[in-house]
Amino acid sequence: MLGRLITFEGGEGCGKSTQIKRLASQLTDLGYRVRELREPGGTALGEKIRFLLKHDPAGQGMVPEAELLLMNASRAQLVREVIRPALESGEIVLCDRFYDSTVAYQSGGRGLSLDLVNSVIGHAVGETRPHLTLLLQVGREEARRRVASRTAATAGPVDRFEQEKEAFFLRVESAYEQIAREESSRVRCIPAEGEPEAVSARIWEAVEKILPKSR
Ligand code: TMP
């Protein structure tokens, strides 16, 4: 039995984590076996790479090419160690970010060529591609507000990406818009401002169409 790979995408502060939790519990209640993952991360090796990418002081001077390869090292491990076996056993895999993030951040944001980025992604994922991608969209002002209140609440350190300038996030956003235009059969844009319940309902409408019949 083949499962489904559903990926969540969007800029910081778009509400992905909340929505992944809501969807996971809806699916579990219906009897589906659900796996929640995040990128970079999701394996022991991937979580170390995540720390390097986001928080380790050694990452401060990281060049875009190194960032691209580290993101995809984490991804190559996650695909083979976790995603493929889970899909083969019929699970619904919900992944907080996947390769569209690399196109948006390393190509759109950092300016690496799309050919280079797509070629590295190809090595990392092979034929393992999402059945559905949900692109959560919020205006930049709302996104900034959410990130600021999260940072204040956790008093956590701002990570290497959150330190970027506004122009970087605008390039990320427009790269996402381009992906959505070019891959409209896979990528669904979800307006993500307003009540979480309303956002969940939009997500469910897209998800129920691709669920396998058997659980
Ligand atoms: P997040 O888990 O808070 O979304 O943090 C992950 C950060 O890494 C986020 O700023 C987006 C960035 N990222 C990339 O730049 N490229 C990628 O391929 C992935 C998966 C994430």
Task: Describe this entry's structure for a reader.
The protein has 215 residues and is an alpha/beta fold. It has a single domain, classed as P-loop containing nucleotide triphosphate hydrolases (Rossmann fold). The protein contains 8 helices and 5 strands, in the order βαβααβααβααβα. Strands 2-3-1-4-5 form a 5-stranded parallel sheet, with helices on both faces. The chain is globular. The protein starts with a strand and ends in a 7-residue tail after the last helix. The site of thymidine-5'-phosphate has 11 residues, from helix 4.
The biggest sheet amounts to:
5 strands, parallel
Uncertain runs are none
What is the structural class?
alpha/beta
Q: Whole-number average pLDDT?
A: 95
What is the CATH top level name? Alpha Beta
Rg from alpha-carbon coordinates: 17 Å
Strand content: 5-15%
Helix count?
A: 8
Please name the fourth-level CATH homologous superfamily.
P-loop containing nucleotide triphosphate hydrolases
- From the spread of the alpha carbons, the general shape counts as globular
Overall tally of structural domains: 1
